[in-house]
Design brief:
The chain has ten helices and seven strands. It is an alpha+beta fold and 381 residues long. Strands 2-4-5-7-6 form a five-stranded mixed beta sheet, with helices on one face. The longest helix is centred in the middle third of the chain and has 52 residues.
Length: 381
């Protein structure tokens, strides 16, 4: 927390000498920080009070002066007094005008100063320097709200550009290999494959496989980019029914794996159902890819613990080593590079699942033993 700096001695002297101007300015600053009103309203109140105080003092001065003069004075002295009163009043009016102009100028400068600082900061921000933000305004009015809105807009712009940059970088990185494979087989077919049925069949299969990989990678990258600005459609539903939908979809795929489902039927959650089902499917897909089909078992369960619900996806597959475990949610990270590409893994599935669960306000954890299997747990609050 920042502490207020002590005022210098010369500043204190100036404040005393030029009182009440400095007092009025100090009152305006205090009023701006403590009262949640618009700038126009605050300024109107300040200048109304100032005008009222000046007018009241002037009227009191005139009345008291006239009372003293009219008590026991002659006509001639009264006439001289009235002349002096006119001159004094004219001088006071001029002084009041000057005082009002000075106070008005100081108040206007105080109001405009944060805006000028905003303009200077905004001018220094560009696509290469998006980490700057407007300094907080020490007032409770439109300037505070404007600063907060602009900083929020800059946060959104920076996040959007970062996602765009990540998308371009990820796409160029991950599409390079399938494009090279397609280009290589296209060249092979052009030279020798036209008359060789085996080379022709191999080339067509490889090109089709890599084209499918590219399609899946692009779809997952687009989904990952979309999640950053995704607006959830929350509904209340039975968790067991939604998860069972994801499990039942695999019964018609002809997989050799045995996929079991168990869980409590009375658990209700309120979140985006389609996103939740997508994250569960992603975990099951991952289990299928890294669990041998023969004797492969995948268990999916739903349970409640305290104030949260849990979804668990376990398998008896190849497992994950301790050094790979901390990085499995990173983009394009594959524990087994060769096996991952052969199984059609893009290295984005677990990243997408983690992003989905975090959007919902939940958590996803993993535990694994190399050669024995892996367990993913989704916690929804």
């Amino acid at each position: 927390m920042e502490t207020e700096k002590p005022r210098k001695l010369w500043l204190k002297v100036l404040m005393v000498v030029f009182f009440p101007v400095t007092g009025i300015v100090a009152l305006y600053n205090l009023f701006s920080r403590k009262v949640n009103l618009g700038i126009t309203v605050k300024t109107t109140i300040i200048f109304t009070l100032l005008f009222g105080l000046v007018l009241t003092g002037y009227v009191i001065f005139i009345i008291s002066s006239i009372e003293r003069q009219l008590t026991g004075n002659t006509i001639e002295s009264t006439a001289r007094y009235l002349m002096r009163l006119k001159i004094t009043s004219l001088i006071l009016v001029v002084l009041f005008i000057v005082l009002g102009a000075v106070v008005g100028g100081i108040a206007s400068t105080a109001m405009i100063s944060p805006i000028r600082k905003m303009i200077e900061t905004i001018d220094s921000i560009d696509a290469e320097n998006l980490d700057k933000r407007l300094a907080p305004v020490d007032s409770r009015d439109e300037l505070y709200e404007l600063t907060d809105r602009i900083n929020g807009m800059l946060d959104d712009i920076q996040l959007t550009l970062e996602r765009q940059s990540n998308f371009v970088s990820d796409a160029s990185h991950e599409l390079k290999t399938p494009l090279s494979v397609i280009q290589g087989y296209a060249g092979l077919l052009k030279r020798w494959g036209k008359d060789d049925p085996e080379i022709l069949a191999e080339g067509i299969d490889s090109i089709a496989r890599e084209a499918d990989n590219m399609k899946r990678i692009v779809q997952q990258l687009l989904l990952l980019a979309k999640l950053g600005n995704y607006s959830m459609t929350k509904t209340r539903f039975k968790l067991s029914e939604a998860v069972r939908e994801a499990v039942d979809a695999y019964s018609v795929t002809g997989l050799p794996h045995k996929i079991n489902f168990s869980g409590q039927t009375d658990i209700f959650v309120e979140t985006d159902k389609s996103l939740l089902v997508e994250s569960v499917r992603t975990l099951i897909d991952n289990a299928v890819k890294y669990t041998p089909g023969e004797n492969g078992i995948i268990d999916v369960s739903v349970s409640a613990s305290g104030d949260h619900a849990e979804i668990t996806v376990s398998d008896n597959g190849i497992g994950i080593s301790e050094e790979d475990l901390p990085r499995i949610f990173d983009r394009f990270y594959r524990c087994d590079k060769a096996r991952g590409r052969e199984s059609g893994s893009s290295g984005l599935g677990l990243t997408i699942a983690k992003n989905i669960i975090e959007i919902m306000g939940g958590q996803i954890t993993v535990s694994s033993v190399k050669g024995q299997g892996t367990t993913f747990k989704i916690v929804l609050y």
